[in-house]
Amino acid sequence: MSWLPLSFGAPMVLWGLIALPVIWWLLRLTPPRPQTEVFPPLKILARVLRREETPQQSPWWLTLLRLLLAALVIAALAEPVWNPREKLPTGGAALALVIDNDWAAAPDWDKRVATAERLINDADQTGVPVVIAFTAEKPNAEIGPFDAAGALDKLRATKPRPIPTDRPAVFARVAEALKSLPGASVAVLADGLAAKDDEAAFRALLGENIGHVLWAVPDRIPAIGLTATENDVDGFRLTAIRAPGDPAPAQATAGAFDDKGRRIADATLTFGPGETVATGDMKVPFELRNDFSSVALDGERQAAAVRVLDESSKRRRVGLLSQTEADQAQPLLSPLYYIRRALSPFADLVEPSNADLADAIPQILDQKPAMIVMADIGTIPEQVRPRLTEWVDNGGTLLRFAGARMAAASGDDDLLPVRLRTGERNLGGALSWTTPQPVAEFPKTGPFGDLTPPNEVTVSRQVLAEPAPDIVDRTWANLADGTPLVTGLKKGKGTLVLFHITPEATWSNLPISGSFVEMLRRIVQLSHNQGSIAAPAGQAAAALAPYRMIDASGTLVPPTPDARPLTPAANAPVTLENPPGLYGSEAGVVAHNLLAADATFAPLARPAFSVPVTDVRYAFDEQQHLKGPLVAAALALLLIDTLAVFWMGGVFARRRRAAAATTAALALVGLCLFGAVDPARADDSKPGDYAAIAAVEKTRLAYVLTGVPGDDSISRAGLEGLTRFLVEKTALEPGEPAGVDIDKDELAFYPLIYWPIDPAAPMPDQAAIARIDAYMKQGGTVLFDTRDQYSTGLDAGSSSPATERLRDILANLNVPPLEPVPADHVLTKSFYILPEFPGRFNGSPLWVEASLDASNADNRPVRTGDGVTPIMITANDFAGAWAVDANGDPLLPTVPPDPDQRVYALRAGVNIVMYMLTGNYKSDQVHVPILLERLGQ
Questions:
Q1: DSSP states of 158-187 as a string?
Q2: Where's the Aerotolerance regulator N-terminal domain (predicted)?
């Protein structure tokens, strides 16, 4: 039966099934218990006359039920397993688990953990220790050896990290640990991606001490990563990579998010068959592109699928160059005047210290600008031209303006977007047949496509471009006659832009219009910063604190405890101390991404092994142990068997008959009462009767409702805490505490009333005080609590507001003489032996009624007979110490903070309640010798 996915851990137990026929024979010989009947002679005789039955054996269905119960127990003891898996070879001196927990392991981390758990459980059955190491943790992390429980704890406590693996360092530590464990089995749970120095790392790990290797890699590497983002002229370009070896085409959707996590743009990246690189564009206005804070691939739950963008995409550094000295007397004629006014609100402007281009251009390039503006520079010195050309090819934007020098320059200039005619064109002059030309509609394919052309702008002079087949593609703005006004060209990663007019208002009034500012701003936004300026010699670059990190699942999270400040550098590595994310503050951040622009995914090559190798597949453990369900089914059958025996014994029938008889008797009594009582006088209850019945059903402690919400809630919580303590420690089970209004509620139901004194509460009127006086005369006790031990102290006779209020209340009561509780008073031993009565505070005595003959030692500790003091006074805040919440935890701290003080306070409450309910019964112990003598003992 190999087709059946079932196995047994103890198959020998199944031989117990042979005993089922014996069990069946025994059950057949054992009749059920005879059914008993309450003596109804006529009914029994009627049954005897009808037929006589004597049970000789169990019913067939009960026998079958018990046989099935026995079979289930035997099967459960055999430890059956459904869909069993084959045990992996984890023998030898130890099992070494080497697990990749980098960013590539994040999407299926749960499956990797389940695979590692299977290996650890198999090692536990063979009794070998486990060495467990993770390649994305610190190299000095503890790796064992552990027992199975310790290894499982470490495995479950480890999470994937958003960093690459560090196999050489971790493998070296594992190899060192295995030197003392020859013949160990090594399980490599890899992410499937190759890393630097893998060959040397595996050679160090799989040395001569290894007895067996278990190799686990994913079937395929589905991860897609973002390597670059570029804010081009016509859109935002993304570059993504995937691992080679996948012949099927694939598509990925990317979303751009702002700093608040809102999705504002999308792009689709398509991989052709066998392709490993895909690009996609987000065709959105540059205003939206400037709001991009991060870009992420949909459905990719790993850190490489997220790329954060820093502040370099929002404000650029712009260099300004001109060969004309500024005229301080006429600044409006300066070539750079209008450019400075237009760019300064949204760009950082830098200028050289002198006008010599041979020195000025290197000075500007050393500042690493995103864009350089040249105002009427005709010829660029040859010694600096290669460096300027390299800067443009690497992503710089060169913006040039025409003028007399450029019009007079001759020859080709590869740093212009178009080839120019020598000279200039004069529109509207004395010898010209033409008139100044307005600006036409901007081409929709250019960066100014959504701008409205300025109607007030005209151009009177310009430099002309030589006609060329691609002149239309390079034109960003035209005049009404079709001649170019602004041209642009992509060169390498950079851009060349030319305004065919001067930057001052001599050839056109465009520089003094609002459109000029908007056009310059668009060009600045298309530029790319060239990096940060290096720190001066001898001075280290400032480190930036972690701001927002990318976790292993690709989510932006707050900095982790391991994150440390980042020193910006060209190729700063991604490590555990510097994970990918944003570094800086709200004022500005620097992006630190996982993948470099030239990163690729290479599959991990399987090293050559000189020992036996077992391939392991990442999967969840699908086997199911059936012992628990079988035991549960056996218990259910046992319960059914028990109910069947009760039913056959007549238990349920007797209960039904007893219930029916009780119902009939109650109905008869009710009918008699209904017929004998006058319906008009049947209900003589009065308002408040039900409340009185509820009050006397159980002993209940009461507290005075003062009208101050905080005092009333603490009083109720305190009496609830004391009630719980009474239930736990004594045989008394009081009911819920009751809040009483001394103006109208009946007080005689309660043996003790707790009254917290608060000067903020209304002063009770004379009628209420008279009711309290009557309550005390009738045997009740009022416990007054001023709760002012640490403000005044009652025994010192001070006059705190609470004490003054208490004196006003007691002035209208018949208060007996008071004294602190003597050491031999019944209160000190009514339940617990207590020398003092603390509450939340400690130090104030508990005042009670003084003995009439306190000097008579023979009267102690009986003192005042069996009577109970009608009044008690304290300042220790009893309710504050007793108060607990719904979980039974204390609400208020004790002063001083001593846990034992709260216990003594609760014991004091128990003594007070017992004293209220039983008087001085403890004092009868002094009469024990006399009682024994009278009894003749």
A1: ----SS---HHHHHHHHHHHGGGSTTEEEE
A2: 6-80
